[in-house]
């Protein structure tokens, strides 16, 4: 399939190309699509000027996350075949078009266009952009895959730190009315088009025989029992128990983290409402910012650590210590704000790190052959967790409130459910072993398909 400038063959790096140019290319995409985490900035203005309720104003974001998982799963193999430049370009077109369609929808008061644009078309851009640099980074950094994917995926977690104040400033500066929302969407689309184009132009893949200077893959595999020098196709990977154990690990780790993240502001206010010094709305906003920072830093910090201690060990930390932290919150109730904040920040750092470390874990188990496509299929766990985590926390809190309870009692049951999910994830991680050789690709097939 000839793709011209976008074809994978046109992106093979010449001799001497610096691999340190690849993380900035990946960041240009992930920092852009990470805007999705700042959708809440638009919720209240949309509700006010388009007469929406909270459920309706959340639809574009929810559909976007669902489409992220579905498009990553459906197009993962094509991303591997056509290369990262093609995938980044498709992501750019879809993500930017989503904003432009949404701008038209707001301007014409057709909210279905916002849902279709931001959630449907833009959501495809999210999925394609999220997986597009992953296998390329792993191939450039086989000696430090956790660090490499952590840098890029940190951008997805940190994109909201840029987009939130920027969006707020535009809404205020453009007049704060319906026209301001439409204009903010338009500016987002145009600016992100330029920024993402930098990644499209800069991305390169290494030559098939390239290896980092001084790195020996055989020696690396000998030092870590789960690291393989063989390769497994995406089609075969989903037939292995290792894939489904990792699916459980990712799903339950994400469910536990997103349960706090989605309801962070009202949760901390509810916890300490009856204390001598309750938490104000402004302070709750600051708490949310701290969680976003922990989410972002965890993606690069813990995933880089996994290169030293191994992926199985680092997930023991995420899942095991995460369960203990939830238990501390449940037992300490509202006795200490500082303890609550520290525990929540650590949980969110494990949440973000789980996203960043999973591609390296996949590389260890299945090799680099089609790791991007395998990652895309695994991201369906995110789609499930994005519904499961908030549903557990919100449904139980609403039920407890209807029963006349308040304060920490609104969330205690949810905390214990999260502990159970993390323990199940811990067990799934413990069951992971090297992939059986019958799933490995013949060497000739790898060369032909690459």
TrEMBL record:
List membrane-spanning regions. Answer: 20-39, 59-79, 86-105, 111-134, 146-167, 179-203, 243-261, 281-302, 314-332, 338-362, 374-397, 409-428
Q: Which PROSITE patterns match?
A: MFS
Q: How does it sit in the membrane?
A: Multi-pass membrane protein
Enumerate the UniProt keywords alphabetically. Membrane, Transmembrane, Transmembrane helix
Q: Which locations, inside or outside the cell, does it occupy?
A: Cell membrane
Question: GO terms for CC?
Answer: plasma membrane
Per UniProt, residues of the Major facilitator superfamily (MFS) profile domain are 1-432
The cross-references to Pfam families, in alphabetical order and at most eight, read: MFS_1
Recorded hits in InterPro entries, A to Z, give: MFS (IPR011701), MFS_dom (IPR020846), MFS_trans_sf (IPR036259), Proton-linked_MCT (IPR050327)
Q: Which PANTHER family match?
A: MAJOR FACILITATOR SUPERFAMILY (MFS) PROFILE DOMAIN-CONTAINING PROTEIN-RELATED, MONOCARBOXYLATE TRANSPORTER
Q: What's the protein name? A: MFS transporter
Q: Which organism is it from?
A: Actinocrispum wychmicini
């Amino acid at each position: 399939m000839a793709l011209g400038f976008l074809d994978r063959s046109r992106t093979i790096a010449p001799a001497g190309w610096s691999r340190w140019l690849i993380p900035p290319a990946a960041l240009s995409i992930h920092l852009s699509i990470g805007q999705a985490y700042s959708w809440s900035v638009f919720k209240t203005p949309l509700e006010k000027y388009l007469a929406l309720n909270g459920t309706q104003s959340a639809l574009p974001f929810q559909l976007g996350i669902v489409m992220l998982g579905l498009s990553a799963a459906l197009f993962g193999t094509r991303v591997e075949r056509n290369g990262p430049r093609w995938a980044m370009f498709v992501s750019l077109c879809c993500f930017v078009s989503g904003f432009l369609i949404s701008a038209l929808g707001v301007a014409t008061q057709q909210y279905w266009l916002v849902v279709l644009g931001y959630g449907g078309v833009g959501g495809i851009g999210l999925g394609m952009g999220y997986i597009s640099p992953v296998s390329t980074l792993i191939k450039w950094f086989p000696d430090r895959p956790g660090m490499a994917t952590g840098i890029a995926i940190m951008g997805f977690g940190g994109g909201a730190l840029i987009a939130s104040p920027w969006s707020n400033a535009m809404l205020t500066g453009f007049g704060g009315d319906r026209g301001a929302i439409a204009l903010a969407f338009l500016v987002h689309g145009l600016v992100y088009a330029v920024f993402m184009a930098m990644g499209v132009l800069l991305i390169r893949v290494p030559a098939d025989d390239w290896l980092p200077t001084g790195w020996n893959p055989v020696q690396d595999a000998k030092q870590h029992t789960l690291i393989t020098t063989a390769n497994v196709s995406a089609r075969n990977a989903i037939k292995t128990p290792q894939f489904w154990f990792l699916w459980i690990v990712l799903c339950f780790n994400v469910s536990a983290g997103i349960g706090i993240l989605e309801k962070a502001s009202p949760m901390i206010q509810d916890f300490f409402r009856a204390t001598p010094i309750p938490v104000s709305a402004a302070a709750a906003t600051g708490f949310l910012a701290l969680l976003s920072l922990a989410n972002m830093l965890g993606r690069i910090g813990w995933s880089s650590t996994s290169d030293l201690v191994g992926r199985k060990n680092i997930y023991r930390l995420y899942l095991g210590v995460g369960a203990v932290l939830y238990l501390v919150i449940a037992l300490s109730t509202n006795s200490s704000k500082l303890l609550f904040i520290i525990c929540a920040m650590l949980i969110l750092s494990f949440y973000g790190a789980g996203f960043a470390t999973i591609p390296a874990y996949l590389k260890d188990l299945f090799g680099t052959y089609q790791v991007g496509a395998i990652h895309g299929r695994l991201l369906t766990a995110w789609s499930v967790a994005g519904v499961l985590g908030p549903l557990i926390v919100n449904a139980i809190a609403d039920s407890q409130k209807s029963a006349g309870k308040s304060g920490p009692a609104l969330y205690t049951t949810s905390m214990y459910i999260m502990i159970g999910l993390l323990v199940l994830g811990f067990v799934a991680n413990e069951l992971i072993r090297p992939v059986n050789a019958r799933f490995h690709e013949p060497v000739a097939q790898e060369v032909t398909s690459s």
